[in-house]
């Protein structure tokens, strides 16, 4: 039976194995769920079932001295090509991924709407903030290889985690690294001072000669190349 509705809820992470996991398995064995720490997603077959689960969960949490997060707990309609209704909530965020209707393409090249995840806006903001904290432009005492060794493990982690679905949603934030490296080159090399176009051309040439130097270059390179959406 396909899932049409999802109950997305957040509760304090206390005794949840017993208060939530085991209780759900007993009371709603037909509703699969995922939980990580104090975030959980419960899959339901209809809105009526989702409302029933939500009401029962609210009562259950009260019984054990907890409560559902009043702002983050909601019934979400998993809208796609086959589920064309509408609801107040048609998206949710879980573990850094935003789940919502998205345009997809099947193996025959036909487009359809699928309810799928991609890196969330909050996660992209956090990544951008981390990249800014590196202060790449100021590291003129480092070589490109030094910078690659410093940043590649972190970038690999982002790509491996957030790049599993719709890699293209990572492209804008990863391009911030390229922008920082171009400014780094302009500051480090006198011949590039004040010459943005020349610095970009120099950097694109580096990427062509050593495409594996930086982890993010397998997705976006300084020459403007980007792999297709994943």
Architecture overview:
- Helices cover 40% and strands 18% of the residues.
- The chain is an alpha+beta fold and 230 residues long.
- The protein has a four-stranded antiparallel sheet. A three-stranded antiparallel sheet has the order 5-6-7.
- α5 (171-188) crosses α6.
- The chain is elongated.
- The mean pLDDT is 90.
Give structural attributes.
elongated, 4-stranded antiparallel sheet, 230 residues, alpha+beta
Task: Give me a quick take on this structure.
The protein has 230 residues and is of the alpha+beta class. The chain has helices at 16-27, 47-63, 121-133, 144-162, 171-188, 196-209, and strands spanning 5-10, 33-36, 39-44, 74-77, 92-94, 97-105, 111-119.
Tell me how many strands there are: 7
Poorly predicted regions: none
User: What's the helix-strand series?
Assistant: EHEEHEEEEHHHH
Main sheet specs: 4 strands, antiparallel
Distance between the termini: 27 Å
Decide which structural class fits the backbone. Answer: alpha+beta
- For the CA atoms, what is the radius of gyration? 23 Å
The amount of helix comes to 40-55%
Blueprint of the fold:
Blueprint: E1 5-10, H1 16-27, E2 33-36, E3 39-44, H2 47-63, E4 74-77, E5 92-94, E6 97-105, E7 111-119, H3 121-133, H4 144-162, H5 171-188, H6 196-209
Antiparallel strand pairs: 1-3, 1-4, 2-3, 5-6, 6-7
Helix pairs in contact: 3-5, 5-6
